């Protein structure tokens, strides 16, 4: 089906393991060969001309791996492998690590493509983003694919790229972009109304593993701000608007002011009920207008407004009626799509995130394999 | 941005003109060179090493074109151009012609890629579909892209291909796939209820150009059946289920039995009110259950059921609440997306159809340019 490429996987946690599982279980993907695996402790490299056997990668990595290489060393080893195998190499970053993200320009200058669900490189400083854009111009034509950075496997980045590439004018991008925020407000403010307390929903979400270990990391809105940064950098006219990346996005934190400095997650959750009345009030105001509350990201291209925060939507709006679970939804309003183009579905989870990564690897193999 | 390819455009009506406009107006697409234009009357070929100037293509085609070449002759001329230009050629079929569709295997065997919004080749006989699949294996590795055959520029075909390629198991595909049917039932059966007569809505739709010249061609459901055929042939286990293509799909026609043979469109529309009571009854039954009516296509993979027809949906279902105008909506339920992945938006129109075609051309240029 696709050309043959070699793959180096950095990070073999939940998402990385799901990537390996998909590569190993789909016969048509057998031309995508894993030649390197690395986690924070160990590195496993394939012998020249060989690929790693994926059936028992855990024990191989544990028993046959060397102590984890530095990223500089990894590049050197991958260059050796490439010199012998004569195949294009794609580096997959399955971490959420800043230091790996900062290394993308080096991977690209070495001639390797980069595929990743890691938001850090594309949502951080403009310097890093610009360095990546510049490194993509390298003579070896390395590719960068990042579908899973927004909405996991949902066709969001690819759709926005197609709209832009074919000359459509993006007017507005708006969406529920955080699975955790989606869950919380689908429960807190359903179209039919609710009286459940905000703190109670957050507490249940945390118990079920839907939040970060510290729920304040979700309620800060920074995940949404990062995704808005990634999207806005794909839009002509906005690409260079956010000098400090997600830190430049106007972001409403839902952590009550009184808990802003509470680093202890247990204490944070215990004290959250003190602020339920504030949330009740905001909800009551929305319900009085027959509206629901959603935590959304918004990019208004003409006004150059990029912001994350709580918004009210009428009860018959797709954001009010259509969502469930921890679904993401994104709406593109453009010159061609005056009625918006909508994409909706699970926006988090190892399998759907890995799907976006593997589909991106197929694209690299089709183009460079 | 993308590699350089040469393009031959067959059909320069509404969609073809929009394709040319997009190619001419987006600077980043300047490496996609049009070397041939053809309509039913004339053919215009570029000189060796040259591309056609797109600013004044209409007058060029009219004044400098030769009488339309046969498709065999066109292949010969394109081979000459390719021998001189040494670039990959993509043939774009912007017609809805059966005879052009039947020629795809010849284009592919000649080494040309095919990009098209024409549904005919992929929704007709299994023989033609199989011949195309076989011709794609040609040594010259020609590509076939067809995003705009279902939902125009909406990411439907690409999304289904990614789900399959990464090993997801498709369980159900369900959607409002005809813009005309969407408009008619959004008006006839909105979530809030309606008493407007079916015949009246069809008549208005026809006056506004939303239907085929003979509305029976929409109400037959064959457009939906064709799209279901295209989608089902991308699903492992179903690809070879429909021997006669769309004619093998179980399809409910909305043309009343008494009008089945009425070839005169004016008479058809004049007589439609005779059957309004039947439609009123179906609507009343749905409304009594707090449901709306939608004309949908359904693929149930496990049961191997592929059918097009009227279905009832509860008033809070996305198909009931979220649609407007002539939107398409499609829902993929899979092993990974237990809550379905939804794509929604304008599914017809020259600009959005051309967008799908041009985005496909970019993919061909990225892979073969």
From TrEMBL, chains A, B:
Keywords carried by this UniProt record: Amino-acid biosynthesis, Methionine biosynthesis, NADP, Oxidoreductase, Threonine biosynthesis
Similarity comment text for this entry: Belongs to the homoserine dehydrogenase family.
Function: Catalyzes the conversion of L-aspartate-beta-semialdehyde (L-Asa) to L-homoserine (L-Hse), the third step in the biosynthesis of amino acids that derive from aspartate (the aspartate family of amino acids), including methioinine and threonine, the latter of which is a precursor to isoleucine; production of homoserine leads to a branch-point in the pathway as it can either be O-phosphorylated for processing to threonine, or O-acylated for processing to methionine.
Domain of life: Eukaryota
Record protein name field: Homoserine dehydrogenase
Catalytic activity: L-homoserine + NADP(+) = L-aspartate 4-semialdehyde + NADPH + H(+)
Binding-site list for L-homoserine: 212
Catalytic site: 227
One GO term (biological process): threonine biosynthetic process
Residues annotated as signal peptide: none
Residues binding NADP(+): 11-16
Cofactor requirement: a metal cation
Organism encoding this protein: Malassezia globosa (strain ATCC MYA-4612 / CBS 7966) (Dandruff-associated fungus)
Residue span, Homoserine dehydrogenase catalytic domain: 155-362
Enzyme class of the recorded protein, top EC level: oxidoreductase
EC number per UniProt: 1.1.1.3
Domain called Aspartate/homoserine dehydrogenase NAD-binding: residue spans: 11-139
Pathway linked to the protein: Amino-acid biosynthesis; L-methionine biosynthesis via de novo pathway; L-homoserine from L-aspartate: step 3/3; Amino-acid biosynthesis; L-threonine biosynthesis; L-threonine from L-aspartate: step 3/5
Any one GO MF annotation of this record: homoserine dehydrogenase activity
PANTHER family for the chain: HOMOSERINE DEHYDROGENASE, PTHR43070
Binding site for NADPH: 95, 119
């Amino acid at each position: 089906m696709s050309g043959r490429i070699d793959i180096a996987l950095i990070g073999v946690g939940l998402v990385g393991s799901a990537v390996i599982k998909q590569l190993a279980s789909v016969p048509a993907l057998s031309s995508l060969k894993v030649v390197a695996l690395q986690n924070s402790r160990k590195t496993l490299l394939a012998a020249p001309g060989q690929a790693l056997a994926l059936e028992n990668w855990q024990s191989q990595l544990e028993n046959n791996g060397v102590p984890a290489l530095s990223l500089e060393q990894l590049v050197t080893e991958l260059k050796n492998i490439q010199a012998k195998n004569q195949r294009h190499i794609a580096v997959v970053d399955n971490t959420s690590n800043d230091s790996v993200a900062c290394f993308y320009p080096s991977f690209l200058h070495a001639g390797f493509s980069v595929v990743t669900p890691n938001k850090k490189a594309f949502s951080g400083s403009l310097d890093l983003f610009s360095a990546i854009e510049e490194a993509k111009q390298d003579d070896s034509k390395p590719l960068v694919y990042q579908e899973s950075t927004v909405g996991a496997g949902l066709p969001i980045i690819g759709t926005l790229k197609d709209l832009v590439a074919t000359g459509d004018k993006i007017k507005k991008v708006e969406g529920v972009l955080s699975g955790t925020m989606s869950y919380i407000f689908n429960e807190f403010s359903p179209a039919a109304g609710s009286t459940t307390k905000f703190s109670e929903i957050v507490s249940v979400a945390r118990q079920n593993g839907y939040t970060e270990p510290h729920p304040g990391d979700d309620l800060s809105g920074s995940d949404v701000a990062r995704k808005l940064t990634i999207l806005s950098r794909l839009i002509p006219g906005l690409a260079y608007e956010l000098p400090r990346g997600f830190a430049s996005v106007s972001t409403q934190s839902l952590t009550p002011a009184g808990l802003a400095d509470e680093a202890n997650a247990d204490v944070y959750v215990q004290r959250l009920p003190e602020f339920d009345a504030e949330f009740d009030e905001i909800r009551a105001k929305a319900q009085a207008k027959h509206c629901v509350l959603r935590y959304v990201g918004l990019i208004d291209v003409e006004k150059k407004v990029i912001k994350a925060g709580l918004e009210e939507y009428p009860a018959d709006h797709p954001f009010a009626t259509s969502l469930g679970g921890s679904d993401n939804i994104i709406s593109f309003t453009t010159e061609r799509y005056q009625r918006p183009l909508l994409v909706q579905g699970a926006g988090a989870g190892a399998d759907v995130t890995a799907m976006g990564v593997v589909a991106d690897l197929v694209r690299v193999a089709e183009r460079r394999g």
